[in-house]
């Protein structure tokens, strides 16, 4: 077998694990796939003859690629183009890297399944991870989720093991709060209302829509979502309910999603994102505000994760 063929086979053995690492770091299946592809390109351009632990090397690379992507979102300084050299790998013990389920901390599940986080605790975790700094997120994910030693995580971050341990500790405290009863109840309520609203909109059920809306509900639409091409605001249950019922054909092809940390709705025919609806849900399960977004710049700035119906 040629070296290039062997390298491709070896990479495929680790692909699922690398996608799982990248997904937990980035919170996006698309971004995770981009990070894995970048890792493959780095591998093909590297002399791996002295690499004893290919899995560890690949995990380090995908982590650094993901860290750069996280930092670019926040306009922070990237780690640069310094990828682990063969001497690092020859000396690295690494944590075991392999197919899903080999981690002793948490199974490396398929990122596609992670993208449809079905339970409220999972949603809360995703939201909390998004509030962490890139360094905190990487330290927590690599150490707590994939059992990577702090010495190796520190190499990825370019920090001392002790500083890395402190980053993970801070992240851990914030993540623990995601499983609190208040967080769980909040996400469950949001999801319940959003599911009912989408079902009512799909069926054009005006009475069901009115029952879900606060009497003083406010709808805001940016210029891209407004027929007039100008941003607009409407208030009142009747006006908003009739508008939602009139959009039943669009609702039929819409999905629930996590939008910047709260449950909302996305319209993405053929996988092309066109409209996002952010919902504000009150404690008594009423929608008090709807923000309809279609402007391309605003859409690009949203953090989205599709949820199952």
Provide a compact summary of the structure:
With 309 residues, the protein is an alpha+beta fold. The protein has 14 helices and seven strands.
List keywords for this structure.
309 residues, alpha+beta, Nuclear Transport Factor 2, Chain: A, 2 domains, seven-stranded mixed beta sheet, 14 helices, elongated
Total strand count, please?
Answer: 7
Instruction: Compute the number of helices.
Output: 14
Q: What class do helices, strands and sheet pairing give?
A: alpha+beta
Please describe the biggest sheet, giving its number of strands, its sense, and whether it closes into a barrel: 7 strands, mixed
Q: Work out the helicity level.
A: 40-55%
- The outline comes out as elongated
The H-and-E topology, N to C, reads as HHHHHHHHHHHEEHHEEEEHE
Low-confidence stretches: 75-121
Q: Major sheet: order of its strands?
A: 2-1-6-5-4-3-7
Please give the radius of gyration in angstroms: 22 Å
What is the terminal separation in angstroms?
Answer: 46 Å
Tally the structural domains.
2
User: Which whole number gives the mean pLDDT?
Assistant: 80
* Amount of beta strand: 5-15%
What does this structure look like?
- The protein folds into two domains: 3-179, no CATH class; 182-306, Nuclear Transport Factor 2, Chain: A (Roll), CATH 3.10.450.50.
- It has 14 helices and seven strands.
- The chain has helices spanning 3-26, 29-44, 54-73, 86-91, 111-115, 120-131, 134-145, 150-157, 161-176, 181-203, 206-212, 237-246, 248-252, 296-300; strands at residues 213-221, 232-235, 254-259, 262-267, 275-281, 287-293, 304-306.
- Strands 2-1-6-5-4-3-7 form a seven-stranded mixed β-sheet.
- It starts with a helix and ends with a strand.
- Strand 3 and strand 4 (262-267) form a beta hairpin.
- With 309 residues, the protein is α+β, with helices and mostly antiparallel strands.
- The longest helix is centred in the N-terminal third of the chain and has 24 residues, at 3-26.
- Helices cover 55% and strands 14% of the residues.
- Helix 6 crosses helix 10 (181-203).
- Mean pLDDT is 80; it is low at 75-121.
- The radius of gyration is 22 Å and the shape is elongated.
